[in-house]
Amino acid sequence: MNQEDYAHEDxxxxxxxxxxxxxxxxxxxxxxxxxxxSRGWWDRNADDYQSEHGAFLGDxxxxxxxxxxxxxxAALLGPAAxxxxxxxxxxxxxxxxxxxxxxxRGARPVALDLSHRQLQHALRIGDDVPLxxxxxxxxxxxxxxxxxxxxxxxxxxxxxxxxxxxxEVRRVLRPGGRWVFxxxxxxxxxxxxxxxxxxxxxxxxxxxxxPYVEQDEDGNAVYVEHHRxxxxxVRDVVAGGFRLVDLVEPExxxxxxxxxxxWSPLRGNLIPGTAIFVCERD
Length: 282
What we know:
The protein has about 280 residues and is α/β, with parallel strands linked by helices. The protein has helices at about 10-15, 15-20, 30-55, 70-75, 95-105, 115-125, 160-170, 230-240, 265-270; strands spanning about 25, 85-90, 110-115, 130-135, 145-150, 175-185, 210-215, 220-225, 240-250, 275-280. The chain contains 9 helices and 10 strands. Strand 2 (about 85-90), helix 5 (about 95-105) and strand 3 (about 110-115) form a beta-alpha-beta unit. It is globular.
């Protein structure tokens, strides 16, 4: 998982000077501004993110979110034995940990990310997976290039037009292809991003879709995240040409004692933190 990963807040704690003076607000942010902000933010913060979370993510582990749900256990892309020989696109791949796990199962993954610095970390770990620097809304692949597509907290929450991403993913998938992506559970938008008791009280409207933006003193966005309700996400999937076959809300496991930004055992045992959408292209 990468995250554009699940964690702007904790990489932000150790972030660069550009974030130190950023002002948090809720305002509209279009496709170009959102893309530009995400690319810049992850190029600046990739080092801190990989340093802090690299041990949890591993070099070749496929984990869907802070709860620690492994694809090896969940098999949301299909049984591990069925992955052999499959062409797989990982979107928002970060350092390509998930792609390496797929390769270890005999798949042929391609790891795509918007951030050049994240992909440099992928090269640091190893050069065994093809890497592509590109925007999820403009996938540089021919129609029907892949059997499967996946994204662990990458791209989807950070784009202004998620339906366009869905349509692009559908375009590059072959008939019968599966598309699985995880995001911060939409209900979390109603609560403060705090791991302790203060993160258990509703502080905002779940139905307010206004993007969360961090901007510099000139009003330029340096970080953008877009909120959609669960119903919105389902409609986005359908509008993108997919059939939703499962919606997974991982429970917090007893073994996981870590806090990761707003994720913690306390909150994880009471409210969901991750939503995983399992979709198929007819």
